[in-house]
Amino acid sequence: MDDPFDLIAGWLHETLLIPLLYALGLMRWEEIAHGWALFAVYGAVQVVATLAICMPLERWRPIERWNDKSAIGVDVFYTVLSRVGVLPLVTFVLFYQAQVALNGWITDHGWIPPMLERVVPALLGHSLLTFAIYAVILDCADYWRHRVSHQLRWWWALHSVHHAQRQMTFWSDDRNHLLDDLIAFVWFGVIALAIGVPPMQFPVLVLVLRFIESLSHANARVSFGVVGERLLVSPRFHRAHHGVLAYGPRSCNFGAVLPWWDMLFRTADFSREYVATGDPSGDEAAATGSWLAQQRSGLRRLWSVLALGRRAA
């Protein structure tokens, strides 16, 4: 039986992408355009799956109820833009090109391209175990990216767009400033290149990790219990990270998928309940403005931080 995702991607490739690439004189991208289309379809399916799982949870045991949900609508736009458009583009097309270029350069100099299985030969032939190890390594890298983004004032100026939402739901995971997303991709990409994540696995890894991150942002009174909360980040655990009293460098619970790193590096707080969310240090545009207004708000805040630094110097 033909893969339905591949069939849809093939239709998009032939009907939309090939004519567009031909018109723009970019037919050299034709081969990998199908890969982008395939992961765009995967992203769309993931959005539907996230909706099917998280929305019933939010209706079953909501933490908060709101009459005006217009701010959530902007988060929906963020999610669709990221998972169907930007994420497949950067995690497959750009990562693929970067890995081809890097491996070619390494090979030309007589070296062997990095690969986790070469470091640990016992992993050869155990693709699922290797995939899981890749996920753990990338999650650890994301913990440090996330933690540093709260410590550096210029980076927090961008990352604060994510924390500005006072009506946090599972849609809020992708609410990020474009520059913050760009830094995250470079961070993720460099780590993935260093450990030799295959091009076809990288976007799948990102989609799997982002699915769990969406769940952790849900407006639902969901806890995994004393043991479960120490194995996987839950909505209760992550909500403490978004609390109004935990913004910027005072935050806790930086782990995206696994709470192990917070436990190991002493940034975990399992005691906080379902606190109110938001960033009281930011402006109103970052919380309730349009997508464009939120992007501008992050840039204004970044500019203020940089200008203050220049005056101090």
Question: What does this protein structure show overall?
Answer:
- This protein has one domain (4-312).
- Helices cover 66% and strands 0% of the residues.
- The protein is built from 13 helices and no strands.
- It has helices at residues 4-24, 30-60, 70-108, 116-119, 127-151, 153-163, 178-195, 202-216, 225-228, 235-241, 260-264, 284-288, 291-312.
- It starts with a helix and ends with a helix.
Give the helix/strand layout.
Layout: H1 4-24, H2 30-60, H3 70-108, H4 116-119, H5 127-151, H6 153-163, H7 178-195, H8 202-216, H9 225-228, H10 235-241, H11 260-264, H12 284-288, H13 291-312
Helix pairs in contact: 1-2, 2-3, 2-8, 3-8, 5-6, 5-7, 6-13
Helix content: 55-70%
For the residues shown, what is the average pLDDT? Answer: 87
Domains, number:
1
What does the largest sheet look like? none
Low-confidence stretches: none
Ends distance: 66 Å
Q: How would you classify the helix and strand content by structural class?
A: mainly alpha
SSE order, one letter for each helix or strand: HHHHHHHHHHHHH
Strand fraction equals under 5%
Shape, principal axes of CA atoms: globular
- Mind telling me the C-alpha Rg? 20 Å
Total helix count?
A: 13
Write down how many β-strands occur, each being a DSSP E stretch of 2 or more residues: 0
Short characterization:
With 313 residues, the chain is mainly alpha-helical. α2 packs antiparallel against α3 and α3 packs antiparallel against α8.
